[in-house]
Design goal:
The structure holds 2 protein chains of 2 kinds. Chain A is α/β, with parallel strands linked by helices. Helices cover 46% and strands 20% of the residues of chain A. Chain A has 3 domains: 116 residues, no CATH class; 65 residues, no CATH class; 174 residues, P-loop containing nucleotide triphosphate hydrolases (Rossmann fold). Chain A is built from 17 helices and 13 strands. In chain A, strands 10-11-9-12-13 form a 5-stranded parallel sheet, with helices on both faces. Chain A has a 4-stranded antiparallel sheet with strand order 4-3-1-5, with helices on one face. In chain A, α4 runs antiparallel to α5. The longest helix of chain A has 21 residues. Chain A starts with a strand and ends with a helix. Chain B is of the alpha+beta class. Chain B has one domain. The N and C termini of chain B lie far apart (51 Å). In chain B, 46% of the residues are buried. Chains A and B meet through β2, α1, α3 and α6 of A and α10, β8, β9 and α11 of B.
Chain lengths: 378, 282
């Protein structure tokens, strides 16, 4: 059992950020979540010092028990302050679907996970806010968005550009930036960079996604591949990033055991960071035609994340098959259909299929796939 | 009574001025010693109900200075100060030479030589509070050893302590940067009780506390905004301070702001902190 003691760099209720944390494990104190360059600052901390940091206004007390003997050293706390959430909601700038398990602390709540999976929440919220900022014509709303971005990743180029262009005195703001986050930059070069960024668009804004959902036994993957091949499109799967996390020793396991392992890891990845998993899948292949086929949607959290990312077009396809045939296929693979369909990674699929933009049978003719492709281009 | 009080105050003031002038003359005459900066993390975590951001804001806007603090473990500090000849009515501000402590405080000031030169008290080759109280790594000493070490390891500001510091850093770490970044010293490099403590910690515990070898400097002057060369500040603390400053940041102060990323959190701009202590442009 691991016990969290404190979130270091006490986060504010107006903030959406990441903090390191102090935990008690096996009778000792460990500081988690520091980047390699800062690890030395957490060495040798003991419980008394943690309590002093709390009482001195440097850290926020948390008393959470985590049912794990040891958290990885890159675990951070993704912090969502109450005031930030309210302001973001008013500006219609919600966060991406958050991890499943949250913990409360004074002024907000937090989520634990690897920095690599948690950081995208800040990065992509900033991207979304910046996209909205550029599209917004009301200057007071633009100022509010820029001010809110300052409570997320104030060092990001997007945050700096938004703050600069919406500042009452942009020249003064530029000088402020040069003395803080843009140190050693030339003011003129920084101004040009801001202008370029403000007139550019992000990659997701041009991307069209067709996402296939369907449970084990519907041959969803085959249909996705057939569609991609017919229109010469790139394909990515959620399986790929999950498989990358599986221990190489799993190679020695049988097909059935590997599938079970992948399902368990996949569920854990969704619970920890739906955004992280969605982005891993999207990034795991290059898409030259700005159209990407995504295979293997199994969770509402992932679907909602893909929607939240606001690609140019998103079409969700539910693959259907006769239920008896599906059961027979699963049995033929030596698996118990009732047990398999009851797994957390299968449970949401029937509803996702019903709610999909289109339902297509696994045997759909080329003409039907052509219709789907046309819908994607519309 | 009044006359004797005035005479005492004048005496103290004259003495402080003499010490300060002597210190400045020494610094000017020695071209081989690079300027050393002092690190002051605040409020000290032992200050209860403290607001580090509010206090930084007050100093940076010139509405307050950082003065001496009442210690929590007062008996330990009073004893250390008594040994060091400090009048309880006029206590110093404590800083570390080339180091921001305590660990994982949200804000630290990197303070110029000018602060120390105004009214220096002295320097010691380790954290005197820890030594006098036999806390942490100093717990291996007995009371007699600790008291003797406190005197032995402390220097008056008029002595060429900076040369001693640099020589010690050279022999214990090789490079000043290693001292700045908190690397542990080489084995068997100290010829005083610190070595005994280091050896004992290495034998019995996991981590070495750098307060065993990080030099401490004490000055009677308050730290004012003009003394602050740089502010090392953690990412969340910066968000709060930035909102308070509202675009008005004092000239001459660099902000060494931490950041977050996919590899974790950089508590401060770590390269910036090292550069600020190393006398390069911060």
């Amino acid at each position: 059992m691991t016990r969290t003691l404190a979130l270091l760099d006490k986060p504010n209720r107006s903030s959406f950020g990441l903090t390191p944390l102090a935990v008690e494990e096996r009778g000792g104190v460990r500081v988690l979540g520091l980047a390699p360059a800062s690890v030395h600052r957490g060495r040798g901390l003991d419980d008394r010092q943690v309590q002093e940091l709390i009482s001195g206004g440097h850290a926020l007390a948390t008393e959470i028990s985590i049912p794990q003997d040891e958290l990885s050293s890159d675990t951070v706390a993704l912090w969502l302050g109450e005031a930030f959430a309210e302001r973001a909601e008013k500006l219609n700038l919600p966060t991406a679907p958050l991890p499943t398990v949250s913990h409360r602390a004074d002024g907000g709540r937090f989520f634990l996970g690897p920095a690599e999976s948690m950081y995208p929440y800040l990065e992509y919220w900033t991207n979304a806010a910046f996209r909205r900022f550029r599209a917004e014509s009301d200057s007071s709303v633009r100022r509010n968005i820029a001010a809110l971005m300052d409570w997320v990743l104030p060092n990001r180029a997007e945050s700096l550009a938004a703050k600069w262009i919406s500042a009452p005195d942009p020249d003064r703001e530029l000088l402020m930036q040069i003395r803080t986050f843009a140190r050693d930059r030339d003011p003129e070069a920084l101004r040009v960079d801001h202008e370029k960024l403000l007139s550019s668009s992000d990659a997701l804004a041009d991307l069209r996604l067709v996402v296939f959902t369907g449970g084990t036994g519907v041959k969803r993957g085959d249909l996705a591949q057939r569609f991609a091949k017919q229109f010469a499109l790139d394909v990515t799967t959620f399986r790929k990033p999950i498989a990358n996390r599986v221990d190489p020793q799993a190679i020695n396991l049988g097909e059935k055991e590997v599938k079970q392992l992948l399902m368990d890891r996949g569920q854990a990845a969704v619970d920890t960071s739906p955004l992280g998993l969605a982005l891993e899948a999207l990034r795991s292949t290059s898409y030259f035609r700005k159209v990407l086929v995504v295979d293997g949607l199994r969770h509402h959290a992932i679907r909602d994340t893909l929607r939240w990312l606001q690609p140019r077009k998103l079409v969700i396809v539910g693959v259907t098959v006769d239920s008896i045939l599906r059961r027979q296929r699963v049995i033929a693979r030596g698996e118990d259909p009732d047990l398999l369909f009851g797994h957390k990674t299968e449970r949401e699929i029937p509803q996702l299929t019903v709610e999909a933009d289109r339902q297509i049978a696994e045997t759909a003719p080329e003409s039907e796939l052509r219709e789907l492709f046309d819908a994607l281009q519309a | 009574m009044a006359l004797s009080t005035i005479a005492s105050l004048v005496g103290v003031a004259v003495l402080a001025a003499v010490v300060g002038v002597t210190y400045r003359l020494f610094r000017k005459s020695d071209r081989h010693v690079p300027p050393l900066r002092f690190g002051h993390a605040f409020p000290h975590p032992k200050d209860l109900v403290a607001d580090p951001v509010g206090e930084a804001y007050a100093v940076l806007t010139g509405t307050a200075g950082l003065g001496p603090r009442m210690p929590q473990k007062s008996s330990v500090v009073w004893e250390a100060e008594r040994q060091l000849g400090i009048d309880p009515a006029k206590r110093p501000v404590y800083t570390f030479v080339g180091c921001l402590h305590p660990a994982l405080g949200r804000i630290g000031f990197i303070v110029s030589e000018g602060w120390f030169g105004r009214e220096p008290h002295g320097v010691s080759r380790c954290d005197t509070g820890g030594l006098a109280g036999r806390i942490g790594g100093f717990s291996f000493l007995d009371q007699r050893e600790a008291v003797a070490a406190l005197v032995e390891l402390s220097h008056k500001p008029s002595l060429p302590w900076e040369k001693h510091l640099l020589a010690e850093v050279h022999s214990a770490f090789g490079q000043f940067r290693q001292y700045l970044t908190g690397d542990p010293p080489k084995p068997s490099c100290y010829r005083d009780v610190r070595q005994k403590c280091i050896d004992e910690v290495r034998r019995t515990r996991e981590g070495l506390d750098r307060r065993l070898w990080t030099w401490e400097a004490r000055g009677f002057a308050e730290i004012a905004v003009g003394d602050v060369e740089a502010v090392a500040i953690a990412p969340e603390a910066w968000k709060e301070l930035s909102a308070l400053l509202d675009g008005e940041i004092p000239s001459g102060v660099n902000f060494l702001i931490g950041r977050v990323g996919a590899t974790g959190t950089h508590h401060f701009s770590e390269d910036g902190v090292v550069a600020a202590f190393e006398s390069r442009s911060a």
